[in-house]
Design a protein that fits this description.
Elements lengths: L8 H6 L7 E4 L6 E5 L5 E9 L2 E11 L9 H16 L4 H15 L2 H11 L6 H16 L9 H15 L1 H20 L17 H4 L7 H11 L3 H13 L3 H5 L6 E2 L2 E4 L10 E4 L2 H9 L21 H22 L15 H13 L4 H7 L6 H6 L5 H19 L22
Antiparallel strand pairs: 1-2, 2-3, 3-4, 5-6, 6-7
Helix pairs in contact: 4-5, 5-7, 6-7, 9-10, 9-13, 10-12, 10-14, 14-17, 15-17
C-alpha cells in the first residue's frame, strides 16, 4: 500500500516560528510530528499510546533556525516506523531510549573519556603532565560527571578556583588540557559541541613567556648545593651544561652516547628530530661519577628501570639546600643572611640560563641556537644540512669553562667545595 504524500523538505523549511510552540503532523507517517519552537528550531517527535497512556518519543532535530538540515524527513519516518513496531510489541520506545542514554552516560563520564584520550596519546611528550593536571585539578570536581552535561559556566568556575589557588598560568594550562580533551571527543561524536570558547584564558602567550635566568650568585649556590644533593644534584649540573630539557636529560641512556657525543633520539626530542649534543669534558665527568644502577641503560635513575622523576618534591628539597648556600655565602661576604631570599626558578630556567651564558662566552647566536636544538627557519633551515658538530662542541666547552669560572671550581670535581671568596649577594624579591 502506497504511503500518503506527506511533508516535503520545502514545506518544513518554510514553516515559520510563532509566539508559542506548535506541532505539524506528517500525513505521510501516522504519529510523526514536526515541532516548531518560538526560536525557530524544529525537531521530530513520534506520538503514540501504550497501556492507555499518551506518550511522545523525541526523534531529533529537523531544522535549526538557519535552515540547516539535521535529520531528513525520510529518516524521521523510518525512526517513527521502528518506534511503531516497538509499541506493537508492548515495548515503550521512549523508555528504551532513556535506558540507552543512561547506559551511554555511565560510559561517558569525563574521567572515562579522559582515560581513552590519554591512552591514545601516550607518545606525546607532555602527556604525563596533562594526566597529572586532570587527576589533581579536574577529576575531583568534574570527573564523575558525563562529559555532555558539563557546562561552560562550570568550567569557568573551576578555572577561577585554580587561578586563586595555583595561579593564572596553571589555570590556563588546565584550560588547554581540557580544550584538547573536549575537542578530541567532539570529533568522535555526532552532536557534541565543546563548551570551551575563546576568551576563557587568564593570560596571554606573551605574558606567560618566562625570562628568568639564574644570576652568577645563584649559579654558584646551585653548584655548591648540587654537591650535597646526590643524584639529583648531578642531574641539575648536567642539565645546565647540556642546555637540554628536563625529560631529555632525565632519559639519558649510555647506549645513546658514542665517545663524547650524545644523540637524543627523535622520539624523545621536542622537534621529533635526532639532536646531537657534543658533551663537554665537565659533562662527561659528571656522568662518570654517577653510579650505574642494576642492569639498566639509564644514567639518571634511582632503580635502574625508570628515569628520574618526582620533580616537585626533589626541587622543593633542593631549594632549601640552595637557599642555605645563598645565606652561607652572604655570611662569608659580611652581609645579613636573614635578608637573603631565593626567587622562584624552574628546571627549564637552567636551559635559558645556559643559552644566555653561551652568548656571554662569545658563542655565535646561530651556533648557540643549534646547541639548543631549535629549528632554524627560512631558506637557511631548508637548505643548510650541515651538522655543526665541531661548532657545537666548541660552544659547549665554552659554556662549561664559563660555568667553571662562575662557580670557582673545576667542573670535573663535582663534589669539591667552593673556594671561600667574598661574593656580592643579590637580594631576591
Amino acid at each position: 500500500m502506497a504511503r500518503v504524500r506527506g511533508l516535503t523538505v520545502k514545506a518544513v523549511e518554510n514553516l515559520e516560528a510563532k509566539a508559542e510552540r506548535y506541532e505539524v503532523p506528517d500525513p505521510g507517517c501516522a504519529g510523526l510530528y514536526l515541532l516548531v519552537q518560538p526560536s525557530g528550531a524544529k525537531s521530530w517527535a513520534y506520538r503514540y499510546r501504550l497501556a492507555g497512556k499518551s506518550k511522545k518519543l523525541t526523534l531529533g532535530v529537523a531544522y535549526t533556525h538557519s535552515g540547516v538540515e539535521v535529520i531528513k524527513i525520510g529518516d524521521a519516518r523510518d525512526l517513527a516506523d521502528e518506534a511503531r513496531v516497538s509499541v506493537a510489541k508492548r515495548v515503550d520506545p521512549a523508555e528504551a531510549k532513556k535506558a540507552e542514554r543512561k547506559k551511554a552516560n555511565a560510559e561517558n563520564t569525563l574521567r572515562r573519556v579522559a582515560k581513552l584520550y590519554l591512552a591514545q596519546h601516550r607518545s606525546l611528550r607532555t602527556i604525563g603532565t596533562r594526566e597529572n593536571v586532570l587527576e589533581r585539578l579536574v577529576f575531583p570536581v568534574l570527573g564523575d560527571r558525563t562529559i555532555e552535561s558539563i557546562k561552560r559556566s562550570e568550567i569557568v568556575k573551576l578555572l577561577d578556583q585554580i587561578e586563586q589557588s595555583k595561579g593564572p598560568v596553571m589555570s590556563d594550562y588546565t584550560l588547554a588540557t581540557v580544550r584538547r580533551l573536549f575537542g578530541w571527543y567532539a570529533v568522535r561524536t555526532d552532536d557534541y559541541v565543546s563548551p570551551i570558547m575563546r576568551g576563557m584564558a587568564r593570560t596571554s602567550t606573551k605574558e606567560r613567556a618566562r625570562k628568568r635566568t639564574l644570576s652568577d650568585t645563584e649559579l654558584r649556590a646551585l653548584w655548591r648545593a648540587a654537591s650535597e644533593a646526590g643524584l639529583f644534584g648531578s642531574y641539575l649540573q648536567f642539565l645546565l651544561l647540556t642546555a637540554t630539557r628536563r625529560n631529555e636529560a632525565a632519559g639519558l641512556r649510555r647506549s645513546e652516547m658514542e665517545r663524547n657525543d650524545w644523540t637524543v633520539p627523535a622520539g624523545r626530542y621536542k622537534t621529533k628530530l635526532d639532536h646531537l649534543v657534543p658533551l663537554s669534558k665537565a659533562a662527561i665527568a659528571i656522568i662518570a661519577k654517577v653510579p650505574k644502577m642494576g642492569k639498566g641503560d639509564l644514567v639518571f635513575t634511582m632503580d635502574g628501570e625508570a628515569p628520574l622523576r618526582g620533580w616537585g618534591s626533589r626541587k622543593l628539597d633542593f631549594d632549601k639546600l640552595m637557599l642555605a648556600q645563598l645565606r652561607h655565602m652572604a655570611e662569608e661576604a659580611g652581609e645579613d643572611a636573614g635578608d637573603v631570599k631565593l626567587e622562584r626558578w624552574t628546571l627549564h630556567d637552567l636551559r635559558r640560563s645556559a643559552r644566555t651564558l653561551m652568548s656571554r662566552a662569545g658563542v655565535l647566536g646561530d651556533h648557540a641556537e643549534r646547541c639548543l636544538g631549535h629549528v632554524i627557519g627560512g631558506v637557511e633551515g631548508t637548505y643548510d644540512r650541515y651538522a655543526y658538530a665541531r661548532e657545537k662542541r666548541e660552544a659547549f666547552e665554552k659554556l662549561a669553562e664559563l660555568v667553571a669560572s662562575i662557580v670557582e671550581q673545576p667542573l670535573g670535581k663535582t663534589t669539591a667545595p667552593l673556594a671561600k671568596t667574598p661574593t656580592k649577594i643579590v637580594e631576591f624579591n
